[in-house]
Amino acid sequence: IMPLQEFVTVLVRDPRTQKEDSWHSYIDYEIFIHTNSMCFTRKTSCVRRRFREFVWLRQRLQSNAVLIQLPELPSKTPFFNMNNPHHVDHRRQGLQEFLEKIVQDTLLLSDSRLHLFLQTQLSPEDMEACVSGQTKYSVADAIHEFASLNRRFPIEDEERKKGKNAADSDSESSSSRLQPSDDSISCGCKASPASEES
């Protein structure tokens, strides 16, 4: 029997504008992972990240893998316009190409930060703390916890509408910020995005 070819599919899709406060907005993107690689704790996952977090990830990976020439992120242009679909899609494609190259590199795949970035919604501060052993939860715990949170949404959706339940105090700081929007439910059930791209 031929061994299965390992694959990692990375999609960066569904850019959304999020308001930080009355003055500031930013765009975040959904990162969808589907893989059979042994390197990944979860075979499918879905998280949302913003450009600034990609910049953080690249810096951390670079400082860990000094000899590797990391792929570039799409350039941070002063003319980037969130309301211009062409700008947003160009950046989305650049972010996707960046991640596609990263996950092909076995050395980079051994960096826990990459896995936390791709498979949890922890903030950079929390990822850093987790990797350096300052949290009660391990990297694997964080990824499993996020998986179970994601799976719980559809059932608890009704509950959440009635009243917010203060579930876990441990990751309160990170989880309270990311009110799971309904997209987490349909996560991974969307039609293949290949058809959307012209």
Feature tags:
198 residues; alpha+beta; 8 helices; globular
Q: CA-to-CA gap between the ends?
A: 38 Å
Q: What is the name of the CATH topology? A: PX Domain
Number of domains: 1
Count of beta strands: 3
Order of helices and strands: EEEHHHHHHHH
* SS field, number of helical segments: 8
CATH homologous group name: Phox-like domain
Indicate the percent of residues in helices.
40-55%
Question: In percent, how much strand structure appears in the residues?
Answer: 15-25%
Computed structural class? alpha+beta
Rg over CA atoms, rounded to whole Å, is 17 Å
The profile of the biggest β sheet is: 3 strands, antiparallel
CATH class: Alpha Beta
Mean pLDDT across residues: 80
Notes on the structure:
- The chain is an alpha+beta fold.
- The protein has one domain: Phox-like domain (PX Domain, 2-Layer Sandwich).
- It has 8 helices and 3 strands.
- The protein has a 3-stranded antiparallel beta sheet with strand order 1-2-3.
- The longest helix has 24 residues, at 139-162.
- Residues 153-160 and 164-198 have low confidence and may be disordered.
Please specify the SSE layout and strand pairing.
Elements: E1 8-19, E2 25-35, E3 44-50, H1 51-64, H2 85-102, H3 106-109, H4 112-119, H5 124-131, H6 139-162, H7 172-177, H8 183-186
Antiparallel strand pairs: 1-2, 2-3
